[in-house]
Every structure is written in structure tokens, then in C-alpha cells.
Write a structure and sequence with these properties.
Helices cover 44% and strands 12% of the residues. With 524 residues, the chain is an alpha+beta fold. It has a 6-stranded mixed β-barrel with strand order 4-5-11-6-10-9. It is extended. InterPro entries: Peptidase_aspartic_dom_sf.
Amino acid sequence: MAKRAKDTDLRSQIEKIIRGYKPQKPAELALEAAKGICKSPFTEDILKAKKPVKFTQPKFKLFEGTTDPIEHIYHFQQQMKRRKDVTILFSTKQSTGESLKDYLRRFTEEMSTLEECDSHTASLAFREGVIPGTKMHRSLVKTPPVDMREVMARADGIIRLEEEELTQSKRTTSTIATPKPPPEQKVETKRYSSRQDFSNGPKQSRPFTRLTVSLAKLFHENKGKGIFRTPPAIRESPEKRDRNKMCAHHNDFGHTTDDCRSLRYQVEAMLRKGMLSQYRAEPENRASEEGGSKTMTGNIANEELLEINTIHGRSNPAEGREARSRFEKRQAEKVRRINGIASASESAKALEKIRVISFTQKDMEGIEFPHNDALVVTLRVANSMVKRVMIDGGSSADVLFWSTFKRMKLDEKEIQPNPTPIYAFEGTKAQPIGDVTLPVIAAGKTLFITFVVVEAPSAYNAIMGRNWIHRMDGEASTRCEVMRCISEDGRTTIDIKGDQVEARRCYSIATNPKAATSQQSEDL
């Protein structure tokens, strides 16, 4: 009975559903299907997203259903931007009258648009595009290049040679058109020209616009603005690259940011469009920056001291204005001494200041032996007490690291651009951010030292080289962990003690690059 009642109830429910169903007409079914087809495939977030202010809706020819759909899609595909392949390089030829410099720039710009490009294949395409009979073409045919890196190296040399020949021809034409000056006037003109050339810095090794800052600093200051394109990946295999060189533009090792050609070409293109004009080298920039430096150093005595808790140099010590001035004064003094021009009072004063600097067994008290620790001290530099300063008699440059400079809260405008690189003992080259002159107070003396500002990870905050040691009239002893200096009056000696514990800590950090980076971020 229960089963029969259950079946009756189920049958009544089915009949009720059937009576409530209303069959739809074909037109209603078609309308419902059309609504489903016309529904956007995008989500609500995408549909309601705010469009950019200057956004322009692209004009597409809508498909109305009366034409061939395959033809419509084919027309759309023709308007799509096609991917370029390496064959585009073989069609990039040097035009008649086009300089090698312009052709190289145009060729590398085409390379940057390719997603994949073998460096060897690109070198073959470049050789095919160079005008036959030119110096570059003869060089590439005589000794085929291995990759584009070798092509660019050869091109740089030939471009410099062509520009030098062009300069010489213009100079010869000018000499013929201009009356020859008298001999005395000619000598004075040469002196003026040499000084002018010296103040403008060494001749550029690349045919690019001269900048007021290094390429690395320019990229560091503008990388957050989104103006740089993503560079193509470095083609050279990781095993053949130099792991000691890091490029911030590629975010990969193999070369430095200053040697990055992709970044240099992008910057050159921006300069030609009027962008980054503040980085063009101007003669008056140095004078204005020097004036700013004097203003900054004049107010040091009134500023509150900050505490900063955490190489070889340039080839010619007479480079730069201050160094050249000191060099000329020393040469003049040397001539005076040779000719016996110095007065008796000056000679007596010089003899009176001569003192013997020596180190005895007593200086070794409190030092843990045996050791090979560096001499690490704390110095007052400008308005800061800077710890972890290494005194290095093997360095001809006084180095201040970029992370330390920022912690000292100094104005970046005080940094003067200097294109001269510094060299490490193994010969590797580094391009500094620039030079900055700051007062260093130690052993009762205040000396204005020109530091080379370098952006590199280091366990030290600064390195004081031979320039500062000699000007302090001092001798540094790593064995005794002390630098002994002759006092201002020349009658006594004053010691600058080293911190052996800190020196060992710095050595531990220096042997672990990751620890050096984290240490700078924590202590500085």
C-alpha cells in the first residue's frame, strides 16, 4: 500500500510539471540564442575598467553577416603587425653617402626589434650590407668576424679613424684659408688649445654624445620612469661571460652598465628626440657645480654630525683642476729648491718639521698576532662620522661608495662628472659616478679630499689611498694597526688607531658578496 501511494504521488508531480510547461515559439528560441552569442567574453572587471585619457578606439570593419567571413578574417590578418625575423637584417643595406656610424646605429636598432637573433648570423648580415670597397668591408672580408661584438669593436676603430681624418681635413682647409700667424702668436695659440682640450676631458672613444654623468648613474636616476625598452637577452653563453661584471639594464652579468651598448643606443636616440637633455655635457656645468660644492663645505661646522656604521686609481695624478694645480705648485717648488731660491727662514722651517716616524714593540701591545688584517679606522668626513674606512697604501685614489654617500645625506648635485675610469689591480675597469670634494678631519688636520664616487657592493664605506696618506704626512702600519702622522706644527706625532675586530669583520663580509650587500643595507 505504501509503495502504491508513493507511485501515485510521483505521477501527480510529473503531471503538474507537464501542465506548467509552456512551449516557446521558434522566434523566442532564436532571440535567446542570439543573446548568448552577443554576450561579451570579458569579465566584469575588464568591461568596467577605466580607459586611458588619450585612448583611441581602433576602427575595425564590422562583420554584418552579408559578406564572406573567411575574407573578412583574412583582411584583419593583413593589418596585424607581423613578427620580424632575421631576414630583415639581410635587407638592411648601407646607403650611398651614409656614414658607417649611422649605418651601425640603424642596423643595431633593427636587431633590437627581433625576438631571436643569432650573433654570428647578424655579423654575416652586417658584412653583406656594408658598401663594397670601404675600409669596413675589406676588414670583414679579410678576417670574417665571429659575432656582432667583434664587428662593433672593429667599427669603433674605423669610425674614430674616419672622424679623425675628417677633422684633419677641416683643419687643413682652415689653415689654407686663414693667414699664418706670427711664431709667437702661434705658440700662445697652441698653449691655449692644449689647456682647453685638457679641461674638456679626454677624447671620447665612442662616437656618442658626451654626458655629464656616467651611463650607470643616468640609468639609475631614470629607470623608474619607464622610458627604457627591455633589452634583448645577452647572446653570449653564461660560461664565457665575466661574472665580475653586472649590467643593471640587462639585469644579468657579462658586462657593466657603462659598457652596455643597448642602453647607450637607447640614450642616444632619446637625446636626439630632445629627451634627457639635462645630461648633455655643457661647459658651464662644472663651474656651477664647483660653486655649489664651496657652498656646501662652508656650512659643515654648523651641521649636526651623522654616524655612518658601516683599487688602483686614475692613470695621471695631475688630471682634474685641483690635482693639476697642486702638481704645478710642486713642480715650481722643486725648481726653486734646485736653484737655491728658498729663503733661510723657509729652509729652517722645513728642517724643523722633519721628524722620524718609527714603530716599536710598544705599538704592538693589544694586537692579536699572528694576523694579516687591514687597517680599518673611523674618520670624520664632512658632517658624518664614517666607520669602516680602510687605509690602503696600494690605492692611488680615495674612494667613497655610493651607498655611503646617500647615507651621509649629501646633495647629489655636489658630484662633478668625470669620464676617467678607475682600474683594479687585476686590470678591470670601472666607471665611477663622478667626483666629490669633502673635508676629512683627522689627527688635528682638516684636508679637502676629492673622492671618486663608485657604485659597487663593498664591506667598506670608503678607501683612503696614498693621496690622503701623503698629505697627512703619515705612515700606515698594518702590522701595528695604526697610522702615525706628523702634527701640524711638526714637533710631535699623532696616531689614528685601527680596529682589528672591525677589520676581520670586513674581511669576512668581503669574501661573501651576498653578505656584503645585506650588510650595507642593514648598517648604512
